[in-house]
Amino acid sequence: MKKLSLILFSFFFVATATFAQEKKEKKKTQKGHIDQNKFRQMKDVLATPNDQHTASGAPGHQYSQQKVDYIMDIRLDEATNHIYGDEKITYHNNSKDNLEYLWVQLDQNMRADDSKTPLAKSTGASAFLTPKSFKNSYMKQKNGFGFNIETVEADGKPLSHFINRTMMRVNLPKALAPGDTFKFRIKWNYKVNNSVRDGGRSGFEDFPDGNNNYTIAQFFPRLAVYNNVEGWQNMQFWGRSEWALEFGDYEVNITVPADHILDATGELQNEKDVLTKTQRKRWEKARKSFKDPVFIVTQKEAEKAEKERSNKTKTWKFKAKSVRDFAWASSRKYIWDAMAVNINGKTVMAVSMYPKEGNPLWEEHSTRVVANTLEEYSKLTFDYPYSKAISVHAKNQGMEYPMICFNYGRPNPDGTYSDRVKNGMIGVITHEVGHNFFPMIVNSDERQWTWMDEGLNSFVEILAELDYDPNFNTGNLPKDIVRYMGGDQSNISPIMSQGDYVKQFGPNAYTKPAAGLYMLRQTIMGPELFDHAFRTYSKRWMFKHPTPADFFRSMEDASGMDLDWFWRGWFYTTDVTDIGIKSVKPLYLTDKPNERVKRLKEQYKQYFDNLGDLVYITDKKEDANTKAMDKYADGKKVPAYIYQVEFDKPGGLVMPIIVELTYADGSKERQTFPAQIWMKNDNSVKRVFASSQEIISIKVDPDLETADVDTSNNSWPKKESDNFDKFKKKLKN
Question: Where is the signal peptide (predicted)?
Fold first, then answer.
């Protein structure tokens, strides 16, 4: 009741004062405004929920997606570096719509001679070029890349189609009704690019000994996604934003030189035809080795193989269920090792293939990193559902596909390597193997929202890397994004931007989302609450197509936390965190009311009489009386020191205020105030700290948890800047 009386009195006092002021001067009419509070709900930006993508973030009862099955015969011509393919496609229309045509992705056309990708770049004259670059840029050199589509047919008859750069529209003889399937065939070939000299996510690396290492992906015409969010996701492939793909079943036969070692997405169907008896025995041993990798092909055997050339071929046959893509790697140079991984009682194989140029680094770490990644990602998401994960060494690549990825990290020719090379290799393997979870299983639209696979994957990567090496420098923590966020705003894009026009792609799509989710887990939600919500989202959208709204809503739905303020600020804006200490005011306990309180007590005598005994707070040290509370303290120690601290927020983002108090005896105390402290005042807030001993310093965000871009205002007493700090500030300005 006393609390209610205090509130009523406060209201009465403020209202009376306001009325008196209005009598003195007439106020100008002020314009109204819309709700711009940082904590307003996101109903204005998120898609309206429906029976496929629900308000809880889960798939709805009407959710559906298409299915595409492939049967392919692939042949590698090593002499000409050409790949020839013949694929039979079965398209399942699981939607409620009649489809008049199908869209097929032709990614190899991005590097075709008539590609628009080079023309879409703003390029000035370079002071130096390779002769090949000069020919390509100024002499219209033709390289012969891109798909040659030989046949598009159904039931043995030509099928009408139209190629628009990296997309091909297949016109159906009649509309494909809901629930129906359509079968057709595409025959094609293309010249494989040298991924070291020509660049690219796949291709081949040539070695001085005349051998090649083929890491092959985006190598076949693939169906685009059709859903109720985008319709056909047929945005052109400009070379950066990756893919949106449907799940399906694959049967793939790959013919390569007989002395090649090959692995791919899916299960090998003909081990006895392509592996020696010794190799098969080693595989059986590897399937039972949970501690160390077992060599299937040793370095000595690989070195012998690379000196020979077989004029015969072998066909490796694979089947894969419920995958969204297919990739493979082949070379006679491969060392091949594998070990078993226990994923909640299921054995999964961790596999590596690498030329001798990768050793000793690769045999020491690659397969062990694969195993660690599968274990750690499974803990935070779902049990890895496939039978294997393969890491293939390619000089300049870091790319991911179902069950297989291509990774850089090469020692010097004498076998030595720096910590930077080693950690780069561990990091890229963790990252690319992790992509099996995002987006190979939680199948987001990479073409539209890069962060949904790269950012989420980079976040889980942090935890996996720190498990592999507790001292690992992940580069994705909140402190690692400060330089980017505090930079030139004209060169920064919100995370929620389509990838092709994003500025500073790496920090935007990888580091900032990862740092934000790490902050959510460690600082805002706590690991237990965050992990349950993140796991819920991951399991809900296994083998499905989630949207950003599905992620945001699932995280809130499963945690019981309103995080709209965080999504809006961190993902939809380029605002920064900057929270500082504006002032610290020492206060004192006293038994003497100040002049203002005296006047109030006279004016509202009955009110104060009802309150009973009072003690007072003053800013006059000479009036201090720590004994004023003695008879009310019930034997407890009365704090002798009181400080009123005002925190201001020059930055646009709201964040928790993490405060570290240091006392005169050297002890420290942490207090955290939730982000909601900024709900009613976006500029400054006050808190009072009481202690039995003197507080000698106060620091905001002592462990750099909130990506604060300016820590010069985080301490009291304010630290004097040394010359180096002044120099850094000058450079920043």
Answer: 1-20
Q: Which residues contact 214 (CB under 8 A, 6 or more apart)?
A: 76, 192, 203, 204, 256, 328, 329, 330, 331
The CATH class for the domain spanning 38-63+445-575 reads mainly alpha
Helix, strand, coil content of the chain in percent (nearest 5): 30, 30, 40
Interval 256-307: pLDDT, tens? 999 999 999 999 999 999 999 999 999 999 999 999 999 999 999 999 999 9
Contact 181, 142 (CB under 8 A): no
Q: Do 693 and 639 touch, CB atoms closer than 8 A?
A: no
Summarize pLDDT for 303-350 with one digit per residue, the tens: 999 999 999 999 999 999 999 999 999 999 999 999 999 999 999 999
Beta bridge partners of 151: 187
Burial string for 414-449 (b: 16+ CB within 10 Å, else e) reads eeebeeebbbbbbbbbbbbbbbbbbbbbbbbbbbbb
Hey, what amino acid is at 410? Answer: R
67-119+131-443 is classed CATH 2.60.40.1730: yes
Distances in Å between the Cα of 87 and the Cα atoms of 71, 78, 177, 251, 646 are: 6, 20, 23, 10, 68
CA atoms within 13 A of residue 273's CA, in its CB half-sphere: 13
Distance CA 31, CA 681 (A): 19
pLDDT of residue 13: 47
Cα 396-192-438 angle, rounded to 5 deg:
55
**Residue 728: pLDDT band by 50, 70, 90 thresholds?**
low
Q: Are 430 and 373 in contact (CB under 8 A)?
A: yes
Alpha-carbon Rg for the chain in angstroms: 32
Mapped onto helix, strand or coil, the DSSP state of residue 349 is strand
List CB contacts of 79: < 8 A, sequence separation 6 or more. Answer: none
To which H or E segment does residue 301 belong? helix 299-305
Q: Helix 527-540 and helix 361-380: axis angle, to 10°? A: 90
* Bridge partners of residue 179, in order along the sequence: none
Among 359, 368, 363, CA closest to 389: 368
* 331, 297 Cβ separation under 8 angstroms: no
The per-residue pLDDT for 725 is 59
Provide the phi-psi class of 527: left if phi over 0, else alpha when psi is between -120 and 50, else beta.
Answer: alpha
Pairing of strands 388-393, 404-407: parallel
Q: Judge contact between 394 and 215, C-beta under 8 A.
A: yes
Residue 217: C-alpha distances to residues 46, 76, 192, 264 (Å): 34, 13, 10, 10
Within 93-211, strands assigned E span 99-105, 148-154, 157-158, 161-164, 167-176, 181-191, 203-206
Q: What is the pTM of this model?
A: 0.93
- Given the structure tokens 């991924």, which residue do they identify? 195
Give the single-character DSSP code of 159.
Answer: -
Q: What is the DSSP string of 227-284?
A: ETTTEE------SSS------EEEEEEEEEETT-EEEESSEES-HHHHS-HHHHHHHH
**Higher pLDDT pick, 679 / 129:** 679
Please state the domain extents for the chain. Answer: 38-63+445-575, 67-119+131-443, 576-732
What is the distance between the alpha carbons of residues 163 and 33, in angstroms, rounded to a whole number? 51
* Angle 636-642-648 from CA coordinates, rounded to 5°: 135
Tell which residue, 284, 378, 269, has the closest CA to residue 321.
269
- CA neighbor of 456 nearest in space, from 577, 546, 343, 590: 546
First CA to last CA distance, the chain: 55
